[in-house]
Amino acid sequence: MPATLLQQLRHLDTLTAALMGGVSVQLQPMTGEVPVLQVSIEGREELPIFITCSDAQIICLCYLWTDDEVRPERRAEMMETMLDLSPSVPLSAFGRVGGRFVLVGALSRSARPEDVAHEIAVLSDNALDALDALAEFLR
Amino acid sequence: MTVIKKLVTLLRGSTREIGQSLVDANATRIYEQEIIDAKTSISEAKTELTGVMAQEKQSARDIKRIQGDIRRYEDMAVQALDKVNEPLALEVAERVATLEAELAEQTQAHAGYALQVSRLKDLIRAAEGRVREHEREIGIAKTTESVYRATQKISDSMGASGSKLVSARESLERIKKRHEDLADRMAAADELDLELGHRALERKLSDAGIGDNPKVRVAEVMARIRARHDAAAPQALPAPKPNAS
User: Fold this and answer.
1) Is residue B124 part of a domain?
2) In a domain, B204, yes or no
């Protein structure tokens, strides 16, 4: 790996902040063997974005809700709605990772920090929008 | 088994294991080695292909040259017969026969080269397909691993700090509330500005002596009171401090 994720995305906080109209954005690496960066955006602290990477990709994740939070009687309807929505959601797709519903966006491992910042800003907007739109399916 | 099929099977089991078991280090190493081998054989095949294609071109040129020679010698044999020189014609015919044998040999070689070229091209195509497929499989496997391991780590860290005990609905409410608060504050600021702007104008007007002026009114009232006071008590006592408000 040529550079660590944090080295590669050094100015991501400033870049994202500028894209989002000057809100405060905090970049926090999580310790451990898997590289994970947490991006907290002022006013949306409850919906942080997590960035991780493999050899080929940079993956941005926003955890929306857990399986337990879904109203059981409306579960199928919610899944279908998410599938139908997914192609329209800009730059990201709905998914589920180990019982957590997510919005996920992937970029090339060599993506520029500017592109990652753009992804983060859009992902955060999408997540908030999706949460608002799909809250009716949640307890 | 393709990697997506394998993934589907794994997803039916425990998701906790996915990060590890989809790409056991051994399988990844094997795939990566296969990619390296395939890439090597592609580059070797390409070098060989260049050589064979050059030979193919060369043999095509040879065939043309031999065909030209045969035509030329046949013409000469005809001329020898015209001159009734049978032995010379026979000699030339022998030459032509040799050339024809050479032509047959070259034609066969040429067909062989052409076959080899198409075989090498197939081989390269197949190897490139294999590389692409392995790279895709490793890509899927590693991405899955990253996503699941990152999620595990995030879950663990959230669990440790007890931070994400808030439901998505609550999160939404909080974010919305914050948005509303901000909107309210901005509206209040607007109102205040309007009011201050209005008051500022009043002040300017009163400073210019236009309109209802409380300062002038207070001064007039004060003068009246002082006049009454002075009339009632001729001794000059200090005037009590007026309260202008």
Assistant:
1) yes
2) yes
B174 inside 8 A of chain A by CB: yes
Distance, in Å, from the CA atom of B203 to the CA atom of B200, rounded to the nearest integer, reads 5
Domain's final residue, options B116, B134, B165: B165
Dist. CA B194–CA A33, nearest whole Å: 56
The residue behind tokens 């000059």 is B236
Query: For every one of its 139 residues, what pLDDT tens digit does chain A have, with 9 covering 90 and above?
Result: 457 888 889 899 999 999 998 899 999 998 777 899 999 999 999 999 999 998 889 999 999 999 999 999 999 999 999 999 999 988 899 999 988 999 999 999 999 999 999 999 999 999 999 999 999 999 9
Residue B178 sits in which domain range? 169-232
Whether the Cβ atoms of residue B27 and residue B145 lie closer than 8 Å to each other: no
Structural domain includes residue B242: no
Q: Which domains does chain A have, with CATH numbers?
A: 5-137 (3.30.1460.10)
Q: How many angstroms separate the CA atoms of A92 and A129, rounded?
A: 13
Number of domains in chain B: 2
Contact A30 B157 (CB under 8 A): yes
- pTM score, two decimals? 0.70
Check A46 against B175: CB less than 8 A apart.
yes
B178 in the same domain as B159: no
Shortest Cα distance from A43 to chain B (angstroms)?
Answer: 6
